[in-house]
Design goal:
The structure is a single chain. It contains 6 helices and 19 strands. It is α+β, with helices and mostly antiparallel strands. The protein has 2 domains: about 120 residues, hypothetical protein PF0899 fold (2-Layer Sandwich); about 120 residues, Sandwich (Tumour Suppressor Smad4), CATH 2.60.200. The chain has a 6-stranded antiparallel β-sheet with strand order 8-7-19-18-15-16, with no helix packed on it. It has a 5-stranded mixed β-sheet with strand order 12-9-13-14-17, with no helix packed on it. The protein is elongated and about 70 Å long.
């Protein structure tokens, strides 16, 4: 089946049946294909201990290739992620597997089409110590943004505030008064800096979840002109305007036009 048809059927099933999980599986059998790929990976990565099957990893990452940018939000939605997470936990429990209590699922998508001989989906398992530290009573993880490409008013900035603004100028004015102040500003006039918008992005820290999220603040028309991307483990992910933003992970590259930042956290 052409990949475009797979994506269309999955998206239609999710949009039209947000609460009908059984119907989703029936109307979009590709969900069953993803589910089986996940379970096969779990079995391959499990081991026996004290007569029990043990799955020691706390993160299962599902990668989908060939997903258009305008559909990426659907496939990374909380609903679809929770669907696969509950399916995974239920399957492991029914088979009497032992697994971490903080087991979770991530969905990653890219518009890049599969190469010859490459499948449209892949599954990897990860032992993620960062998740434990995020929820530990030690509190907020130190984090910072480091300028990799471009010239900003600071070579790096510690993320100590709840909100950190990023843009072209230090002060942004609208009408008769100030609109906002950028903490990290690409003020020098050069070719790279000119690709950064006055109000380009901001990073928001959530004390409740101990997560840093990146938000797009640009004014633009068309999904293809978002001007903000994250590059993570060699894969690019656009960050469009929206109320949820994108969770930042250590060593993420943040591309603002052609300027580049690196997110570092301990």
């Amino acid at each position: 089946m052409p990949l475009s048809n797979v994506i269309e059927k999955l998206g239609k099933a999710i949009f039209e049946t947000p609460f009908g999980v059984n119907r989703i599986a029936k109307d979009a059998p590709e969900l069953a294909e993803i589910r089986l790929a996940v379970l096969d990976t779990i079995k391959a990565k499990s081991h026996r201990a004290s007569g029990k099957n043990v799955f020691p990893y706390n993160l299962v990452r599902i990668r989908l290739l060939g997903v258009p940018e305008d559909q990426s939000e659907v496939f990374q939605s909380e609903f679809l992620t929770n669907y696969f997470m509950e399916e995974l936990k239920s399957g492991l429990a029914r088979s009497s597997y032992r697994f971490p209590s903080d087991l979770r699922v991530e969905m990653w998508t890219t518009p890049k089409l599969p190469a010859k001989g490459e499948t449209w989906l892949s599954v990897e398992t990860i032992m993620d110590p960062a998740k434990a530290s995020e929820t530990s009573p030690r509190g907020r993880r130190p984090a910072k943004l480091v300028v990799v490409h471009g010239t900003a008013n600071q070579a790096q900035i510690s993320l100590e505030k709840t909100r950190t603004n990023i843009g072209r100028t230090t002060e942004v004015f609208r009408g008769a008064g100030p609109s906002r102040r950028n903490d990290l500003a690409f003020t020098e006039d050069n070719e790279v800096n000119r690709t950064v918008s006055r109000e380009h992005a901001h990073v928001l820290y959530s004390p409740k979840s101990a997560e840093y999220r990146l938000f797009n603040d640009r004014w633009y028309k068309g999904e293809a002109n978002c001007g903000l991307w994250i590059v993570r483990e060699g894969l690019s992910q656009p960050v469009h305007r929206g109320g949820r933003g994108v969770i930042l992970k250590p060593d993420d590259e943040i591309h603002l036009g052609t300027a580049v930042l690196r997110f570092q956290a301990r």
